[in-house]
Amino acid sequence: MKRYIKNLLIALRGRNPYQEELDGLKEKYEKAGENVRILQNMYYDAAEKAWDAEKRESALQQLTENLRKRIRELRGFTDK
Q1: What's the helix, strand, coil split of the chain in %, to 5?
Q2: CA gap 22, 7 in Å, rounded
Q3: How far is the C-alpha of 69 from the C-alpha of 67, rounded, in Å?
């Protein structure tokens, strides 16, 4: 009850008794938003690198299959 009356008197004088707490929460909220942006950028970078790695892997697999096919064809010509 004592705290309620104190806050009421402060509010009647035109000041927000919770402004300090509100400012602290706002600062934490802004830091959290910045952290989210940083994490999103890191995620997108990692996803792009993974996509590039998958494309390279696919190209290497195709190259390997082409080389195997050529080797089989060459063996076919030399065995005859």
Answers
A1: 90, 0, 10
A2: 15
A3: 5
